[in-house]
Task: inverse folding
């Protein structure tokens, strides 16, 4: 790390496009790194940066006020001299002139540019996707619409058995509504979790009275008077609904990056330090795909990814290297079950259990060629926290030790 | 509403008005108190909002849940008898004037 990064005499400043968790982190980390020049944070949404994870949990459940979502109060932006432009869309980036053009025609010069444009909900390529009562969940506005619809709904169909779908299903079920999950794959969480964990969550939701339909391919939505009434599946069935929540994934928002010729491949391509192919431009969070040391691409959708890439990006804009290589971690809250995941289990060749799934308190440890690669912890937060250290330090935990509840995992982290 | 005094590890004090029903973490993070990260947004999933609560008041708080208890075993700074996760402490009038000290590091 160098010394304080003073603004150059003609410093055009740092511009950050996207005012979510990642964008805010870039802005604050620039200040934390000692950068003294202008910092402008531009967001499309009307709200100042807010915590997104509670949207599918406490906000739908009605146990959290919207005011509690804001990450920082207005005075914190002032104190840090971060100019926050909300409700503002960027139309284009001109890399040779080093400016961004706003939709209202204004131009903002930049010395360094950070893209934190996030992602958009994936739409269903079927008829009826535009009916009233068919909603996706990504933004605070989306959550408001779903919460209002839950207040009136009796029957909810969730299309997609990923984390968002499962969390919405849990919130709707807690409100006593009739809930059906339609998942096209033969198991839940098909893109992100192991069959074992997916089975646990199918049982959990069924035990709570949710109808979980696997292999249920949605072919159309029926409506009356412009409002959705039912979801049709390929097996010929019709599932009545007055609210349909579509949770079939997100699409990284790469339009601005592609528009200015930055390399994208299912996300803006970045290295471990959040650098794009343009030395003046970094990218962070859900909009990115990271080139790993192994020549593969890694796309993560998580708070940790936004925060860590945000820190790396701020450093990179100041010519410093701060790689983000820590094991990825995630969490999901459904009913009284807290899931915490660390690592990536896709390449596993072995699983061992610590604790008992029937007690709803266990961790599944995943290994590849004898080395720990990931841990799913259900209501066992200590396993998760120790697991992060084990993975980051590449500690030599054996499957037998993982399965032995008397073996102190923490002994390998000292 | 409660007036809460956060004291950073380096001694810097910040007094924050926190509405009833909010958590200490939410009040601190929205006010930019540097010693609390609260990365998971208050889900008791990250242990980066560790704090040391006023000894005089710690016993009057609802005790930690099992999850908080386990997470407190995994904080980056030393756990003490008055250690809590600030995302799990809801503000009430009874906490008016409480002093909360912050650890050296959260992660």
Result:
């Amino acid at each position: 790390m160098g010394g304080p990064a003073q603004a150059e005499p003609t410093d055009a400043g740092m511009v950050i496009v996207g005012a979510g968790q990642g964008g805010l982190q870039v802005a604050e980390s620039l200040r934390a790194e000692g950068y003294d020049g202008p910092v402008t944070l531009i967001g499309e949404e009307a709200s100042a940066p807010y915590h997104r994870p509670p949207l599918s949990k406490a906000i739908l459940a009605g146990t959290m006020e919207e005011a509690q979502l804001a990450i920082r109060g207005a005075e914190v932006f002032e104190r840090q001299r971060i100019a926050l432009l909300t409700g503002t869309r960027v139309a284009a980036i001109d890399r040779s002139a080093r400016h961004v053009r706003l939709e209202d025609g204004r131009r903002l010069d930049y010395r360094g540019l950070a893209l934190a444009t996030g992602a958009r909900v994936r739409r269903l390529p079927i008829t009826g996707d535009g009916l009233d009562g068919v909603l996706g969940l990504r933004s605070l506005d989306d959550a408001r619409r779903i919460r209002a619809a839950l207040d009136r709904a009796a029957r909810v169909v969730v299309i997609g058995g990923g984390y968002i779908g499962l969390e919405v299903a849990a919130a709707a079920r807690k409100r006593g509504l009739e809930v059906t999950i339609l998942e096209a794959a033969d198991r839940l969480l098909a893109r992100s979790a192991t069959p074992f964990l997916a089975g646990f969550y199918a049982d959990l939701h069924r035990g709570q009275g949710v109808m979980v339909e696997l292999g249920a391919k949605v072919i159309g939505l029926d409506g009356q008077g412009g409002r959705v009434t039912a979801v049709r599946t390929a097996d010929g069935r019709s599932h009545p609904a007055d609210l349909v929540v579509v949770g079939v994934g997100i699409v990284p928002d790469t339009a601005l990056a592609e528009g200015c010729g930055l390399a994208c491949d299912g996300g803006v391509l970045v290295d471990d330090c959040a650098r794009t192919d343009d030395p003046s431009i970094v990218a962070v969070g859900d909009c990115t795909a990271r080139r790993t040391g192994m020549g593969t691409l890694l796309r993560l959708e998580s708070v940790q990814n936004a925060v860590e890439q945000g820190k790396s990006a701020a450093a990179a804009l100041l010519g410093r290297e701060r790689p983000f290589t820590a094991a990825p971690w995630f969490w999901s809250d459904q009913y009284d079950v807290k899931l915490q995941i660390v690592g990536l289990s896709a390449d596993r060749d072995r699983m061992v259990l610590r604790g008992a799934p029937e007690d709803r308190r266990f961790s599944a440890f995943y290994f590849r060629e004898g080395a720990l690669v990931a841990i799913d912890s259900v209501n066992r937060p200590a396993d998760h926290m120790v697991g992060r250290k084990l993975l980051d330090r590449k500690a030599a935990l054996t499957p037998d030790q993982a399965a032995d509840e008397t073996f102190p995992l923490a002994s390998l982290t000292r | 509403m409660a007036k809460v005094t956060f004291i950073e590890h380096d001694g810097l004090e910040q007094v924050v008005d926190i509405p009833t029903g909010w958590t200490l973490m939410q009040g601190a993070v929205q006010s930019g108190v540097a010693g609390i990260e609260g990365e998971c947004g208050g889900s008791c999933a990250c242990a980066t909002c560790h704090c040391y609560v006023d000894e005089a008041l710690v016993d009057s708080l609802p005790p930690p849940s099992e999850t908080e208890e386990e997470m407190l075993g995994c904080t980056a700074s030393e756990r003490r008898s008055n250690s809590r996760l600030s995302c799990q402490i809801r503000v009430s009038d009874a906490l008016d004037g409480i002093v909360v000290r912050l650890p050296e590091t959260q992660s």
